[in-house]
Amino acid sequence: MEELIIKGKAAKAAAAKLALTSADAKNTALCDAARALIENTEYILTENAKDIEAAKQNGMNEGLIDRLSLNPERIKAMADGIMQITQLPDPISEVVSSFTRPNNLEINEVRVPLGVVGIIYEARPNVTADAAALCLKSGNACILRCGKEAHRSSMAITSVIRKAIKTAGLPEDAVSLVENTSRESAVALMKLNGYLDVIIPRGGAGLIRTVVENATVPAIETGTGNCHIYVDKTADLEMAKNIVINAKTSRPSVCNAEEKLLVHKEIAEKFLPDILSALSEKGVEIVGDKTACAIYPKATPATSEDWGTEYLALKIGVKVVDSTDAAIEHINKYGSLHSEAIITESPENANKFLQAIDAAAVYVNASTRFTDGFEFGFGAEIGISTQKLHARGPMGLKALTTTKYTIRGNGQIR
Amino acid sequence: MEELIIKGKAAKAAAAKLALTSADAKNTALCDAARALIENTEYILTENAKDIEAAKQNGMNEGLIDRLSLNPERIKAMADGIMQITQLPDPISEVVSSFTRPNNLEINEVRVPLGVVGIIYEARPNVTADAAALCLKSGNACILRCGKEAHRSSMAITSVIRKAIKTAGLPEDAVSLVENTSRESAVALMKLNGYLDVIIPRGGAGLIRTVVENATVPAIETGTGNCHIYVDKTADLEMAKNIVINAKTSRPSVCNAEEKLLVHKEIAEKFLPDILSALSEKGVEIVGDKTACAIYPKATPATSEDWGTEYLALKIGVKVVDSTDAAIEHINKYGSLHSEAIITESPENANKFLQAIDAAAVYVNASTRFTDGFEFGFGAEIGISTQKLHARGPMGLKALTTTKYTIRGNGQIR
Q1: Cα(B272)–Cα(A105) distance, integer angstroms
Q2: b/e for A310-327, b at 16 or more Cβ within 10 A?
Q3: Which residue of chain A comes nearest to B114, CA vs CA?
Q4: Other C-beta atoms lying within 10 Å of the C-beta of residue A172
Q5: Is there a contact between B349 and B103 (Cβ–Cβ < 8 Å)?
Q6: Do the chains contact at B105 and A370, CB–CB below 8 Å?
Q7: CA nearest neighbour of B152 among B173, B130, B181
Q8: From CA A394, how far away is CA A194, in angstroms rounded?
Q9: Searching chain B, which residue's CA lies closest to the CA of residue A257?
Q10: Which of chain B's residues have a Cβ under 8 Å away from the Cβ of A197?
Q11: d(CA B36, CA B72)
Q12: Residues of B in contact with A193 (CB under 8 A)
């Protein structure tokens, strides 16, 4: 696709300059971009209104229209987000390791930008500013491709940012947005080898699957969370109740929300009626295995599909298990490698769970909702990696970098 | 493909056990496997002879037959390689970072195995033992898929290793070899999502391209090296000559060998006749740009394709450039992100080159041949990553690991 080749070349050239740009220059450009977004509020809202109008005509649901909609406060929040990113330490040029070999070669492993980052996302205009700022801060050029419903809004934001960073002396092609909104342009971006160094999807399970299946550029999988909480027989049941209610109901649409509750058989009769009626009062739909349904008859039987499903809604799957080992086995079979928790007063079971569970974040006696770049203290988040290569769990700026070895010699040959 | 699903399930179950296996137990099993390979020399050679016989009948060339051929010394070398791996520190369980959040959540980032590693390679039986040992040492199960010409040899080696590690108390499915040798089985392995955590190709450019284009499992690109040496106008020309001869001729078939020579115009007339006749005497075929051919008429004109080609042979492309900047631009355009070198006495040009070149290893005044896990002191090498995600440059055991966050709380909710 010609547009992508042109943008790829331009981004690659911009990345070469950005890699040599100082932290101060990057931060100045980001401050300018933040200010420019606020100054151009009216223009951005005008373009956003066109997106919203079209979305309404196409029958987009209320929730999605809300995510698509901007207003002065939301534009201010975007600008504030960029300003926060300027306050983070610059990850580039850190010497990660340094050693001298017996032949006197001096080897340094130095942190450098990835180069050109592709980001594919859905109809959320605010991701445009956030992704562009994270990439710029970490010295990367980015090629953004947003959902077509948010295209006019994202284009407005992109053009404001491009103008601001150009005026600040940085290459405007450090940030670009794919103009072609066809499905083909998304797939072409995933296959833009030679120009893109990585592609990161930010969105739902469908988008992520499309990227995993189609990308020939290295991709980072993010975000699907079929998260479990296992309540052990030794659990403090009051603590367990608080955590389960928090993890399930505080924000059910996010990837670190609880989707499944596993309960040890010895406490099931005591704990389940209490927690499940509490969840039910909060509007949570409950499906369960045979034992759970027998103990709490208002639950409906879970299907085999339920155990692997991320609901992202006020719904929970409940299963009674015989042991910590059985809980571990179930989680490692059905989990999505995101966040898993055990509630227990047994140090032995806690350690076993921490060691054996295969997930980005494994909790003892805390809510899965803490799997988040800000909660972990990273100050920013590109996403939550649920794969094992490069980055796992909440990804801060460092996940947008790589290293290279620089080697100084005085004529060494092998 | 049913075989792969079965092997995938078995490997995943084995990986869950291996992740909890102590360093001592892994090392004991590896020592036993090394001993078993020597004890079964006769059996392995019998199977290898069948592969060689078939290869000869199919007209395989001498070089490839040599790489396919085993003898008692080569089996001993395989066993020694495994014993060396047992001596390396265990990368698993290292606490990479540790911090307590203001809400008292204690977060540890702990090094853990990747899980199940797929390795696709060509007709080199020794890779079977090497890959299996590296994976086992780092706590990973592996599914190997070798070139069909080496299948009987690799199957013999795999069965000896499986028996040895089983006797040592480890799951035999920690190591398995795909029995189906069709092209389809290779592609199916690259798409074995849900079972494989990573796929690593070990072989030539064609194999790597096939993996990059087909894999839906995260892949690590390794090994293509279109390596340049740039001789700056300030270079010590005697040093430059030694380094170029070493980098080009010491082992032309490997990925860290020099493929291109760039020379600053101010020294071209002095340096080129000397170095090119020296290379020519060592049997190196020389192609050059216009200026190089004018200075050294025995060179033949390079085609535009030459600049991007990894010869892996006694052939070199020569180009005269106007400046360090021009050399950097050429290398960043045509290089394969592997190893690049500048020969210079100018600290300014050295620094500029180190900063601006986009490659896994960037050298000042040393041969590109040092890009190698053993030369870097890593003690072992799975390959040399030429991509930027996860691992870059020579990959030691750490490249076969990931991390997970373990979080301990006392009832925290969000």
Answers
A1: 27
A2: bbbebbbbbbbbeebebb
A3: A388
A4: 18
A5: no
A6: yes
A7: B181
A8: 27
A9: B414
A10: 387-389
A11: 13
A12: 212
Are B388 and A114 a contacting pair at CB < 8 A? yes
Cβ distance A387 to B114 less than 8 Å, yes or no, reads: no
What DSSP string describes B360-383?
A: SEEEEEE-GGG-STTTTT-S--SE
Write down the pTM of the prediction: 0.92
Tens-digit pLDDT string for chain B (414 aa): 899 999 999 999 999 999 999 999 999 999 999 999 999 999 999 999 999 999 999 999 988 999 999 999 999 999 999 999 999 999 999 999 999 999 999 999 999 999 999 999 999 999 999 999 999 999 999 999 999 999 999 999 999 999 999 999 999 999 999 999 999 999 999 999 999 999 999 988 889 999 999 999 999 988 789 999 999 999 999 999 999 999 999 999 999 999 999 999 999 999 999 999 999 999 999 999 999 999 999 999 999 999 999 999 999 999 999 999 999 999 999 999 999 999 999 999 999 999 999 999 999 999 999 999 999 999 888 899 999 999 999 999 999 999 999 999 999 999
- Please state, in angstroms and rounded to a whole number, the distance separating the CA atoms of residues B402 and A390: 8
Of B107, B338, B363, nearest in space to B231 by CA: B363
AA letter at A298: K
Of A358, A366, A365, the residue nearest A386 (C-alpha): A358
The type of residue at A393 is G
Whole-angstrom distance, CA of residue B72 vs CA of residue B56? 21
